[in-house]
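Structure in, sequence out. Go:
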């Protein structure tokens, strides 16, 4: 919003004014996932060369077209190759990030690998909190670094309340790819005789892994919310955000402010420092 932009721009650090050619590589797990990086590049006044994911070729290109219709001097182009870039911002899987780190070893870079998000669920969680939490879990099928995929539960919480709060999202099972993942992993866990709970469209499984496969939500039990938070904080390098009381509010994991920078890396400071 205009109000957010007016609050955000004064936060930018002062720095050089030289324009650099900055390459940006977008992930394809969510629509417009690279929009914040592109906005930062535009505000910084750099020449941006953007490589879109094959899974997100339309929306980002349309946003850039509209930006250029408002500012014909905006030097942002969609490219197929990162030739001649002086800095790089790239987001992708861990293997892709390792490749970028090696290939662009001589230029300043921000590289973001695979992360996920988790939530701390107190034993006395309200119905409203659980309803909002379901949005954090399923808004984008559980994809993307800000989707909650792991629930750190306080002992005494009734897990059946989760299934009741999730029913409004049951329609995602109608998506063929999601439904196939659910069928596959449910069958796999049954063959392996692994205990789990399910409601015909999502599997709830006790496991310490923070990032389960699509259609699966992992849980761990903790003696208190403080213990749950401590356990998650010890793995902060794998997490984008933690939802809970006193943390990112329930239902808000997918709505970061302009100054909530991915992986905690200050993108404006990086871009301004290039000049």
């Amino acid at each position: 919003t205009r109000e957010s932009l007016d609050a955000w721009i004064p936060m930018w650090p002062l720095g050089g004014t030289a324009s650099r050619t900055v390459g940006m590589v977008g992930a394809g797990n969510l629509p417009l996932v690279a929009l914040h990086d592109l906005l930062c590049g535009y505000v910084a006044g750099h020449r941006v060369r953007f490589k879109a994911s094959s899974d997100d070729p339309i929306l980002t290109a349309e946003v850039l077209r509209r930006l250029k219709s408002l500012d014909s001097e905006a030097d942002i182009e969609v490219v197929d190759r990162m030739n001649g870039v002086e800095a790089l911002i790239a987001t992708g899987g861990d293997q892709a990030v390792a490749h970028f780190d090696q290939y662009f070893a001589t230029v300043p870079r921000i590289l973001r690998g695979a992360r996920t998000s988790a939530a701390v669920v107190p034993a006395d969680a309200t119905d409203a909190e659980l309803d909002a939490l379901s949005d954090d879990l399923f808004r984008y099928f559980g994809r993307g670094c800000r989707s909650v995929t792991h629930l750190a539960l306080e002992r005494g919480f009734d897990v059946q309340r989760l299934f009741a709060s999730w029913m409004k999202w049951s329609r995602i099972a109608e998506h063929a790819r999601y439904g196939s993942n659910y069928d596959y992993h449910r069958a796999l866990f049954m063959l392996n005789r692994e205990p789990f709970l399910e409601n015909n469209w999502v599997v709830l499984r006790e496991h310490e892994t923070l990032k389960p496969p699509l259609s699966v939500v992992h849980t761990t039990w903790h003696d208190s919310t403080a213990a749950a938070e401590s356990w998650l904080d010890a793995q902060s390098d794998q997490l984008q955000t933690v939802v809970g009381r006193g943390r990112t509010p329930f239902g808000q994991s997918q709505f970061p402010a302009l100054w909530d920078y991915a992986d905690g890396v200050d993108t404006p400071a990086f871009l301004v420092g290039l000049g």
